[in-house]
Every structure is written in C-alpha cells, then in structure tokens.
Design a protein that fits this description.
The protein is of the alpha/beta class. It is built from 8 helices and 8 strands; from the N terminus they run αββαβααβββαβαβαα. A hairpin with a 5-residue loop joins strand 1 and strand 2. Bound molecules: 1-O-pyrophosphono-5-O-phosphono-alpha-D-ribofuranose and orotic acid. Belongs to the purine/pyrimidine phosphoribosyltransferase family. PyrE subfamily.
Length: 239
C-alpha cells in the first residue's frame, strides 16, 4: 500500500489500514470466525503488541472521536471504558492520544476498565480506574462479533451508575448475524445494528469492510479484493 492517502478513505484511516496490514494485525487468507463462517480476512487486535502499532491504533481511535466534533452528532463523554482484556490497553492508549492531540478538551480525560472476575480483597470490586457513577461513558473495544461482550460491559457500567453514550470499535465487519435456522441466504441485521437499536446509542468504527476494500483497491492483491467482495456480497447485513 502507499504511505497514506486513498481516494476512498480519509488519510488517518488509510494510515491505520496500512499499519494494521504491515503489522500483521489484518490478515488475508482463510479464517474460521466465532460464527463458524470462513472469512477471507481476519483482524486480531491482540496483535497490536508493539509500541508503533499501539500508537497507530490509539491515534486512529482518537481521530475517529475528534472527527465527530465537526459532525451533527459529536461524541461527548467523561470516561473511556475498555472491557477486559483487550479493551483495557485500547481505552488507556486512546485516552493518552486524545490528551496529546486535543489537550484543552481531553488533557484530563479519564479511563477505566473491568476485571473479568471481581476482586474480593484490598479495594475490592470489579471496576478499575475512574469511578463511573453519574459519568458519561464511551466504550472502546476491538470488534463486535455477536455483541455479547458489549452487552455485558453495558450492564456492568449501568450497575455502577454510569451512562453509556456510545461504543467505538476498530472494525465494523458489516456482516449479518447468523440466521437462527442456519440459512445464511436470508437477510439478517448486524450485531452492531442490533446494539444501536436496543440501547439507542451510536456504535462507531475506525474502519468498515467497505473501507478495507476501498483502501486496498489499486494497492492490495486483486485476488484478495475479489474474495473480500464476494464475502461482502454473501454476508452483508440488511441494515
Ligand atoms: O461479544 P462481542 O461484543 O461481539 O465481542 C467479541 C469480543 O470477544 C472478544 O473478546 P473477549 O470477550 O473474548 O475478551 P478478551 O479481550 O479477553 O479476548 C473480542 O476481543 C471482542 O471484543
Ligand atoms: O468474528 C470473529 O470471530 C472475529 C473476526 C475478526 O475479524 N476478528 C476477531 O477478533 N474476531
């Protein structure tokens, strides 16, 4: 891929896409998903373990948030919340990057995260970081697959008195939920769309599958692009 801009996606998204591909976080081939579908691409946020890659993803989350400021629906929040485990480093990295990019507004932005198992000694509880009570919370995580982890995070935050105002993920695969009868030819909504409807909150992403395909055009392998387009045609959500 070229160093930055793409005609289809803004430069910060193209930079993030390039970092994800070069760093081996976004891979092309044949991968089995949680849903058992065989996908021609896979995004593993657990592979953002190098400082330059962490910086790339934190910058992209931060810029996605900052971009909403000039939109009709700016994100306004007090705390970035990262669901354990992978969300922890993503939310804390994003807080650090926001403070660097927009110090006046975000110089003292807070973050917090949950423990997977409640701690029964010391300070106890299952939330670490900024107290959530009465605060507006933006959840930062890697991907939505079924939406289960996001629903659990929303429940935990609400139990602590926090107000979830949105979810930000790195990738929206734009794919439909599996049909209950297993017939994948039927139109079905996406997990992201269902969360938007159920909780009435925005769910934003740095990249979508459309962005990946657009960003690869003229740069990636023709064969990969064709397989991604076929996968999109087969599994695209109805919403
Ligand atoms: O259920 P969904 O909302 O669609 O999300 C799927 C989540 O599952 C995975 O995390 P997991 O809960 O397994 O925790 P981990 O970060 O410890 O891997 C993955 O990283 C997603 O965040
Ligand atoms: O659906 C999944 O299981 C899945 C897809 C993907 O791209 N990345 C991920 O971590 N999980």
């Amino acid at each position: 891929m070229g160093s930055s801009s793409s005609p289809e996606i803004p430069p910060y998204k193209a930079d993030f896409l390039k970092a994800a591909i070069d760093g081996g976080v976004l891979k092309f081939g044949s991968f089995e998903l949680k849903s058992k579908r065989i996908s021609p691409y896979f995004f593993n946020a657990g592979d953002f373990y190098r400082a330059d890659l962490l910086r790339a993803i934190s910058t992209a989350y931060a810029k996605t948030i900052l971009e909403t400021e000039s939109s009709s629906a700016p994100l306004e929040f007090d705390i970035l919340f990262g669901p354990a485990y992978k969300g922890i480093v993503l939310a804390s990295g994003t807080a650090d990057k926001l403070a660097e990019l927009a110090p006046q507004k975000y110089g003292k932005i807070c973050y917090s995260f949950d423990r997977k198992e409640a701690k029964d000694h010391g300070e106890g509880g299952n939330i670490v970081g900024a107290p959530l009570k009465g605060k507006r919370i933006l959840i930062v995580d890697d991907v939505v697959t079924a939406g289960t982890a996001k629903r659990e995070a929303i429940d935990k935050i609400r139990k602590e008195g926090g107000i979830v105002v949105g979810i930000l993920v790195a990738l929206d695969r734009m794919e439909k939920l599996p049909s209950p009868d297993g017939d994948d030819t039927k139109p079905m909504p996406s997990a992201i769309g269902e969360i938007r409807k159920e909780y009435g909150i925005p769910v934003l992403s740095i990249l979508t599958l459309d962005d990946i395909i657009g960003g690869l055009k003229g740069r990636g392998s023709e064969e990969d692009i064709k397989r991604l387009e076929e996968y999109r045609a087969k599994y695209k959500a109805s919403d």
